[in-house]
Specification:
This protein has 13 helices and 29 strands. It is an alpha+beta fold and 810 residues long. The protein has a nine-stranded mixed sheet, with no helix packed on it. Strands 2, 4, 5, 8, 9, 10 and 18 form a seven-stranded mixed sheet that branches. It has a four-stranded antiparallel sheet with strand order 1-3-7-6, with no helix packed on it. Strand 6 and strand 7 form a beta hairpin. The N terminus is likely disordered.
Length: 810
Amino acid sequence: MKLHFQRRKRSRTLIAACSTVALTASVAFGNISSVFGVVQHESSNTTPANLPSAALAASSLIRVNQHGYLPNAVKRASLVNSSNSPVAWQLRNSSGATVLSGTTTVFGYDASSGDTLHIIDFSGYTGTGSNFTLAAAGNTSHQFDISSTVYRQLKYDALAYFYHNRSGIAITMPYAGRNDLTRPAGHIGIAPNRGDTNVPCAGGTGCNYSLNVVGGWYDAGDHGKYVVNGGISVWTLLNQYERNQYFGSSAADFGDGRMNIPENGNGVADLLDEARWELDFMLRMQVPAGQPRAGMVHHKMHDANWTGIPLRPDQDSQERVLRPPSTAATLNLAATAAQGSRIWRSIDPAYSARLLSAAETAWAAARANPNVIALDSDGTGGGSYGDPQVGDEFYWAASELYITTGKAEYKSYLQSSSYYQDVPSDYSSREPAMTWGTTEALGTISLAVVPNGFNSSELAGVRNAITSAATVFANNVSTQGYGTPLSAPSTGYPWGSNSFVLNNGIILGLAHDFTGNASYLNAMSQGMDYLLGRNAMDKSYVTGYGENPLQNPHHRFWAFQANGSFPRPPAGAVSGGPNSALQDPYAQSIGLPGCKAQKCFVDHIESWSTNEITINWNAPLAWVAAYLDEKAGAVTPPTPIPATATPIPATATPRPATATPIPATATPIGPTATATPIVPTATPRPATATPVPSNTPVVPTQTNGSCQVTYTVSNQWPTGFTADVTIKNNGAAINGWNLAWAFAGNQQIGNLWNGNLSQVGQAVNVTNVNWNGYLATGGTASFGMQASFSGTNAKPSSFSLNGVACSVAP
């Protein structure tokens, strides 16, 4: 079992002594409105990111999501108040009128913050609007919106982070969004740059060649490029794409022409174009044939010595060097290249083949060199990213290679791994749920999401591992006064604590996909509330969002605080956030040592241990924002999470649940019956809309056309395909469904998810599972399948729902 904790050790003590590189000409500030997408995405949150600190809102003792809440989600705020008795609160609209009132629930002392808290639960209000406030005990909160579109722009802004941090390309308008964010291409071999087109191995590392490693993303506040951090970042973007293919409904939002990047209009989904920018760099880091350790991958490349702040990438005059290969980096390429190969198979077959070749070459090289370890001591000029245990990376890579190739050797390896079906959920042995150095969950997730050769029991095992971890995270929400799905160890919050909230959110989202249980979705939503202001710092940790947003992240180009001729950050960058270890001198010098976990933070450019930004933290921000936006209209009052956290059919062997189940009321912090709606503008969803565990169809009176079926082939190869089926009920509500059709050819379904399958010859029947059987009028249910065929793969021409013919969407 892996026992190391995430470390991003950076020898930054020399930074203060480094000379400041000043711009020779001031940069004019342009239009500060964000532009993310060929169609302009309206954003009301870009202005606060560019206001001077003095213009920010004063702190409030009522801590809210300063950006906004989803109308049908759990909506909570935290009030700092020492009273042992409930206090009255009011929810006020933009005109100051009270639209909901109630009394708080006393939470008491919150260990992670040191605050004594009350909880305000205003979930009973499902109206929409802008500039709401909460008032309680003589305090007024920051303003916030209630809208189904609160995350519509953030999902694009979070992804724009990657374009802004591209290496090897000029950042230009209109893609930069603001004129002051444009800059020349960095590290393309034009003076004063000394790379990255011909980068030598660092002296004393045992190799004597140079590589063209241009491109990729700058990792964080520095100009280094690291394969192991690039690996989890690429995986997260590609997993967002794959999850959309099999469980999501928002793939089109990230299709060609939807993101504001130079590649839009090339016929490929923009999300994939952005991921490929880094994946191509990772390919270039592979040791060439004929060289020692051929097929392995260099761990990282960066400046020979640390540079100072501020510094534009094209003005970096340091020599660039390749650091030695490592087993961890080699397996990162094996995993992500295998993942990419299956995605690009039908998009760019030649690229797909190149990726698979690189992946299998890397796998063989890692097997031949299983203990080439990156050391924590290698931290001059760039972060060390030391990782002494790589069993999790072997499991992850074997999982991706198996899904892509179906080869028995990979399946045998992954199933014999001690990391098989593992998703860390606490700090007993390693960090939850995934980090750049703790990667087993990535393999488990891919096995659970992407159709592969697993039988129903094996598939149930990996999905149950995810729901078991999600149950732990959902229960964490009830124990935290600020409602975060993160429970810190005794040592306090780790470096990049906000990324743990986000990655735990991915696990919660997937558990919701697998079970339909809204408690997981509501826990994810509350995690985002924490990041956007419902926290001990009364701070939105995302630039450009909320009345008190992040202003001064540790970044060499977005360095306005250090030099006014440099730009402020764009909207959509998330800070690593509170870090109890306080490794940087600035945080240590301002009185933070001894701080409570949530208060170990300062929004200052010199605080690289609490206020850094990185690609592997913005990637899950993009994933979670996209998920919440997709589900914005579907969040319902939570249903109890089963004690076993096992939504899979009984044929599966469940993983033991280690978490205490969420109470049947699904209201972890107390009753809300005292809330009295005053001006309700919407009717909450009826309780009967909660899926009923029944597989026995109840057939209401239906007429032809009272249902519609959408059958979509999502991927096809010469001998097989995957397809998604969505049923829409246009008639009376039904409890339990049976969809029947006949294939025209010899299609044979080998794997089906989110339904129960019966196939005899060409005749197919799919019935609901226990959580998606209820279909209200206008309601939908979806399932997917993997099947084989030969000859022609014609789509079915007719379907019947509970014996009644349905219309078929074109």
